[in-house]
Design a protein that fits this description.
The chain is mostly beta strands. Helix content is 11%, strand content 42%. It has a domain at 24-94. It has a five-stranded antiparallel β-sheet with strand order 3-4-5-6-7, with no helix packed on it. The chain starts with 9 loop residues before the first helix and ends in an 8-residue tail after the last strand.
Length: 102
């Protein structure tokens, strides 16, 4: 038997690793786009996103062919996605009032 105190903990550590490996983090893009007057004409898509991350500033989300970003002055969100040819998105949302959080 070894004098190393960590050896007795190896089975417990292995057990915890196996239990925590069941956690699966993913990102998904789901979009429905419809015609403004002909509601029966619509496009719908749902796709898993690959290589996704939140940048260091924690204000921008980036994935393959998807980006959600907040402008430097914190007034504009820009969202672009081109995952599916039926649902290409390019949207900008502007703040119309001052936020108390700035």
């Amino acid at each position: 038997m070894s004098d190393n105190p960590l050896e007795s903990q190896v089975p417990q550590i292995s057990q915890r690793l196996v239990e925590s490996s069941a956690l699966n983090i993913f990102a998904q893009f789901t979009c429905r786009v419809w015609h403004p007057t002909e509601k029966e004409h619509y496009a719908w898509s749902s796709s898993n996103l690959e290589s996704f991350a939140i940048d260091e500033s924690r204000k921008n989300f980036i994935a393959d062919r998807v980006k959600l970003s907040l402008s430097e002055d914190l007034t504009t969100y820009t969202f672009t996605a081109s995952i599916n040819t039926k649902t290409v998105v390019d949207v900008r949302v502007f703040s119309m009032s001052q936020s108390h959080d700035r």
